[in-house]
Amino acid sequence: MTNADGSGDRYSRQTLFANIGEKGQRQLLDSTVTLIGCGALGTVLANTLVRAGVGHLRIADRDFIERNNLQRQVLFDEKDIADQLPKAEAAARKLRRINPDITIDAAVTDVNRDNIASLAEGADLLLDGTDNFETRFLINDLAVKTNRPWVYGAVIGATGLIMPILPHDTPCLRCVFENAPPPDANPTCDTAGVIGPAVNIVASFQATEAMKILMARTDDVLRMLLNIDVWSGRVTPLNVQPAREKGNCPCCVQGQYDYLEGDAGSSATTLCGRNAVQVHPGHGVEADFERLTEKLQAAAGSGMTSNKYLVRCQIGDHELTVFADGRAIIKGTSDPDVARSLYARYIGS
User: Fold this and answer.
1) Which fold has domain 268-346?
2) Residues labelled as active-site residues
3) Domain 31-245 adopts which CATH fold?
4) Is 278 in a helix, a strand, or coil?
5) Could you tell me the residue ranges of all domains in the chain?
6) What is the tens place of the pLDDT at every residue in 88-114?
7) Does the predicted model carry a pTM greater than 0.90?
8) What Cα–Cα distance (Å) separates residue 172 from each residue in 153, 200, 229, 248, 252?
9) Cα–Cα distances in Å, from 289 out to 107, 130, 297, 308?
């Protein structure tokens, strides 16, 4: 584990920690992780694991970078915005410079029931960097069905949650949250805000649990739902084990994979705190950027930009960003029906 320039072991300070050591470091280097979501939590997770020497990191994210991301999404800067890079690609470019000795794959895609299995192929662990319950339940379904561990994380304001999930051992996400709460019951970063230190602490706990799992130190894994209030300094461990032992979870007990099988979930998703909706046209749809640019030109006038990753234009009060897989993020509404209508009018049904 010596650097190519002979300057010594990149991971020497980490391997001095007795719970990792040389053996643990080799296990990390031999590991593959799929990170779903590369926003606030995801960028800290990716940065931490790449520096720790996880050998293969696959990053999947559907989104592009905005200026208000920079306060907490640690891998991005103003140049990424100017270059209109999607988050997954911008993160991968930075991470390859941080640690060129490991493999980093970027998937600019919406993670859904059609592609999650392929994105997770070969992964020893799944990591949650998302911002919505629907995708988390999808991750949970696949993890339980394939007996693959994953680490849940969420943060809003100064408060965060962390829960490692070892399928058929610890409670799964649906043991604890059987159904997603309605959107109007949840604060978002738009209504409650979010501070960078809370993101960093939650993601650091997630990364630590991930490292334990990858090194097969499952006896050391936190078997609880950890609630952290960074502002007050309060850390509350919640014993959720009875939720599995005494409950009748539809996923890990009954074997129902509602989100993975398409019995639950939607093709239009309101994005957290963005006043925006993502519309997914369905499986196997790809955008023809040249034709799409011509089609949108009349409506958008000169207010259009494009590169090989996306086409973006302003139409009235709405900003439309279309990706190569046919998805669109429609900004200026939180109503899925309005978003679907705009998609049909300007992009195609």
Assistant:
1) TATA-Binding Protein (3.30.310)
2) 189
3) Rossmann fold (3.40.50)
4) strand
5) 31-245, 268-346
6) 999 999 999 999 999 999 999 989 899
7) no
8) 13, 24, 23, 11, 7
9) 18, 27, 12, 8
